[in-house]
From TrEMBL:
Requisite cofactors: Mo-bis(molybdopterin guanine dinucleotide); [4Fe-4S] cluster
Domain of life: Bacteria
Recorded GO CC terms: membrane; oxidoreductase complex
Domain 4Fe-4S Mo/W bis-MGD-type as annotated: residue spans: 5-61
Keyword set includes Cell membrane: no
Metal-binding in keyword set: yes
Record's protein name: Nitrate reductase subunit alpha
GO terms for MF: 4 iron, 4 sulfur cluster binding; metal ion binding; molybdopterin cofactor binding; oxidoreductase activity
Annotated keywords: 4Fe-4S, Iron, Iron-sulfur, Metal-binding, Molybdenum, Nitrate assimilation, Oxidoreductase
Gene Ontology process terms (BP): cellular respiration; nitrate assimilation
Family: Belongs to the prokaryotic molybdopterin-containing oxidoreductase family. NasA/NapA/NarB subfamily.
Residues of the full protein shown: 1 to 704 of 895
């Protein structure tokens, strides 16, 4: 009997908007992908990437179909049976841990993984092997937002919801080209403004992006100048009596010290640092403070910085100082880059987190998780976050690295250092779905992973909404769901290393992992301990915390999950970016997304429709800079930083301020040789979030 057409409800696998989709499939083939009109986060709408998802589902050689092992002498790969691959992974891990200790093992995961994948990886690292060396590419994405929320509001919890977009009177967009990076939310904002013509939109961005062009006030901030801008806005609010004194007195602490700090940040003084005219700073401050409801939407422009946490905190201060928080249409609202970075934070699969938003530095928290997992204790040695993991590989503190669903040999900054670290590792396991991922070239063992729409589980989007992800077609070749691969290796490691822990991984299905994970949230700020798959099937997607029903908005009572119930103003100063322009490197380089590509293009590169938007990489310069460096449009140009160089065409772009260059983040060494654009970027990180400064380095250009 011929296969029937099936419709499977799931979630788009790209950005943190978390749009619901309906996947029409027949047998092994996906026929089409449409927006799910019943999903509350997108109500049927999709952007160009979501609409082209069907083109990216492949069963051919663009996929990793079988396990492969590399001969260390010849460098040649050969296929091996899956069970042999799992044995080899387990033997390597156990031998390494026996000889060098648990911290010789590291896990580098991905915001693309499902919550269930994170949960089992985390349990394997911490409860079985005994290391906190587990981190994800969310370190490149939202970790400054996490640190900013925790230090000011007490918990890693975005307080607002998408429906606040329709309720806001002023919307401040900082460091986000929403029109490209979160298109469905941007279109929602444009519709909201049509319905509320009085709405004012302020966009803070060094470039005059499509998002900035929709602004009533575009503040073309000098890259790295955001803290000076936010402090100057607060200065205006203090000077003009625009503060909500009652809110500050009743719901916050620490304002007096910050008020002293920002005294010197007058608009006139700040304009030299942040590049914004004093009058515009005053206008932005007034619009922000005097609006009945102000919502801030922000992402990588604040986060990917060596002062990313300070930028987040300085923006949150504006909301606390004006009481623009906990009310409809107001609040600071970070837009998550990856589809399930939130789920990874909830599962605690990061060096600086434990499940349920707990802290690995806290003995109480470690003991709580150990008890719930059924082990005696968890490791107390601090884990190594993502960028430092590659330093640890270089100096042999970490010897074996297990990479899953991410492409560090293209996406991490300072590629020459990253690639050297991968080459020098004792053993690299790469669990991957796409054969084009550049990191595969550094793998000793390749494990074939299933990907969207072949996997089931859950994801949490930017507005704290948990949705079911459902498999629509079987995985090709021998590819398996990520959690099943981990389960197979973990069982083998347990048999050799700690037989009494083998029972830790006796899950029958994703639902069992989710149920255990949900129990770990009990009593925590995100509490969804009563949720399970049957309930999620009944309720549909819900927002945490979930207690009989979801929670749309946090902190409406003016109480915060801090020790004293008050939000904190933090006395934070301004720090310049890690690199400053000089005679040898006279241009600032910033990086970002294009509309139709995603990350390192392993998936979007499979869609002819998406490729057509921009087919080749280019460096974008202001026409005046092109004239200064005698570069003709489309001329091949050498771009140099202190770490390396690449060659690619130059393109005129008057959306840039003179002195500032832009490179799309998507292309690697195959397009331009030598490690791609991240040969140029540097690995300086924020002191609180450990997030790298991918948005700023200094460069020189000349004709090739
Ligand atoms: Fe997918 Fe994000 Fe586009 Fe929605 S906005 S369809 S989640 S890429």
């Amino acid at each position: 009997m011929p296969d029937e057409i099936r419709v499977t409800r799931s979630i788009c696998c790209y950005c943190g908007t978390g749009c619901g989709v309906r996947v029409r499939s027949k047998g092994e083939q996906v026929i089409s992908v449409e927006g799910d009109p019943d999903h509350p986060s997108n109500m049927g709408r999709l952007c160009s990437k979501g609409s082209a998802l069907a083109e990216t589902v492949r069963r051919d050689t663009s996929r990793v179909l079988r396990a492969r092992v590399r001969d260390r002498v010849t460098g040649a790969y050969r296929e091996l049976a899956l069970s042999d691959a799992f044995d080899l992974a387990a033997e390597t891990i156990v031998d390494t841990v026996r000889e060098h200790g648990p911290d010789a093992m590291g896990f580098y995961l991905s915001g693309q993984l499902l919550t269930e994948d994170y949960a089992i990886f985390n349990k394997m690292a911490r409860a079985l092997i005994g290391t906190n060396n587990i981190d994800t590419n969310s370190r490149l994405c939202m970790s400054s937002a996490v640190a900013g929320y925790k230090m000011t509001l007490g918990a890693d919890a975005p307080p607002a919801s998408y429906e606040d977009i329709e309720l806001a009177d002023t919307v401040l967009i900082a460091g986000s080209n929403m029109a490209y990076a979160h298109p469905v939310l941007f279109q929602r904002l444009m519709r909201a403004r049509q319905a509320r013509p009085h709405m004012k939109i302020i966009v803070i961005d060094p470039r005059n992006t499509d998002t900035a062009q929709a602004a009533d006030l575009h503040l073309a901030v000098t890259p790295g100048g955001d803290v000076a801008l936010f402090h100057a806005m607060l200065n205006v609010m203090v000077w003009e009596g625009l503060l909500d004194q009652d809110y500050i007195a009743q719901s916050t602490d620490g304002f007096a010290a910050l008020k002293e700090r920002i005294r010197e940040f007058t608009p006139a003084a700040a304009q030299d640092v942040c590049g914004i005219a004093a009058d515009d700073i005053v206008t932005a401050a007034r619009w922000f403070a005097q609006s009945p409801a102000t919502l801030s939407l922000y992402t990588m422009g604040l986060n990917q910085s060596s002062s990313g946490t300070a930028k987040n905190m300085a923006l949150i201060h504006l909301h606390l100082a004006t009481g623009q928080l906990g009310r409809p249409g107001s609040g600071p609202f970070s837009l998550t880059g990856q589809p399930n970075a939130m789920g990874g934070r909830e599962a605690g699969a990061m060096a600086t987190l434990l499940p349920g938003h707990r802290d690995p530095a806290s003995a109480v928290h470690r003991n709580e998780v150990a008890a719930l997992w059924g082990v005696d204790c968890l490791p107390d040695a601090p884990g190594v976050p993502a960028i430092a993991m590659f330093d640890a590989l270089l100096d042999k503190r970490i010897r074996v690295l297990w990479i899953a669903a991410t492409n560090p040999a293209q996406s991490l900054p300072d590629q020459n250092r990253v690639r050297k670290a991968l080459q020098q590792a004792d053993f690299v396991i790469v669990q991957e779905a796409f054969a084009d991922a550049e990191t595969l070239a550094f793998a000793d063992l390749i494990l074939p992973a299933a990907t969207w729409p072949e996997k089931s589980g859950t994801m949490t989007n930017s507005e704290r909404r948990i949705s079911r992800v459902r498999a629509a077609v079987p995985a090709p070749g021998e590819a398996l769901s990520d959690w099943k691969i981990v389960q197979q290796v973990a069982r083998r490691v347990a048999q050799k290393w700690a037989p009494h822990k083998a029972a830790l991984f006796e899950y029958q299905a994703e639902a069992d992992i989710f149920a255990e994970h949900a129990r770990l949230t009990a009593g925590r700020d995100l509490d969804y301990s009563t949720l399970d798959y049957p309930l999620l099937e009944k309720t549909g997607p819900v927002q945490w915390p979930y207690r009989n029903e979801g929670t749309v908005r946090l902190y409406s009572e003016g109480r915060f999950p801090t020790g004293n119930g008050r939000a904190h103003f933090i006395d934070v100063g301004f720090n310049a970016p890690a690199e400053t322009i000089s005679a040898h490197f006279p241009l600032r380089l910033t990086t970002g997304r294009l509309r139709d590509h995603w990350h390192t293009m392993t998936r979007t590169g499979l869609s002819a429709t998406l490729i057509r938007h921009v087919e080749e990489p280019a460096i974008y310069l202001h026409p005046s800079d092109m004239a200064r460096y005698r570069l003709a449009d489309q001329a091949l140009t050498r771009v140099k930083s202190r770490r390396g160089q690449i060659v690619l065409p130059v393109q005129a772009d008057d959306s840039l301020t003179p002195g500032c260059a832009f490179l799309p983040m998507h292309w690697g060494s195959r397009a331009m040789g030598g490690g791609g654009i991240n040969v140029l970027t540097h690995g300086a990180t924020d002191p609180y979030s450990f997030q790298p400064e991918l948005k700023h380095c200094v460069i020189a250009v000349n004709a090739f």
